[in-house]
Each structure stands twice: as structure tokens, then as C-alpha cells.
Amino acid sequence: MATPKKHLSHSKSGGRRSQIHLKLPEIFYCPNCHYPRLAHTVCPKCGQYRGKTITASH
Ligand SMILES: [Zn+2]
After folding, report:
1. What is the CA(4)–ligand 1 centre distance, in A?
2. How far, in Å, is the centroid of ligand 1 from the Cα of 26?
3. Do 26 and 38 contact (CB within 8 A), yes or no?
4. What is the full per-residue pLDDT of the chain (58 aa) written as tens digits?
5. How far apart are CA 28 and CA 42, in angstroms?
6. Cβ neighbourhood burial of 39 (10 Å; 0-12, 13-18, 19+)
7. How far is CA 21 from CA 6, 24, 36, 51, in A?
């Protein structure tokens, strides 16, 4: 059975959600234009993903 909130110490109730924001989004650099982008996404600058042009470049 879960412990009631009023029975927990402040460190325990605060520590429960301390692990949520540990993971940062992975940044990869585009092999074509070296623009920093998120992993597994199309490059917003040149529109390339894994050597293929997905969107028309500006
Ligand atoms: Zn690029």
C-alpha cells in the first residue's frame, strides 16, 4: 500500500521526480553541413537525413 503524502519526509517526496529530467536530447551534427540537430531527425538547414535529401534546400 502506498504511503500517504503527509507521512513522507520532504526529501523523499522531492526525490521521487529527481530522475525525470536527467536525459537530455541527443545532439548530432549533420554530416553534410555540420549543423547541430537532434538524433534521427532531418537536418533543418540542408534538409538531409543519412545522405538523402528529404526536403528541398533553401
Ligand atoms: Zn545539414
Report:
1. 52
2. 16
3. yes
4. 777 878 878 877 777 777 777 777 889 899 889 999 988 889 999 998 887 888 765 5
5. 11
6. exposed
7. 25, 7, 21, 32
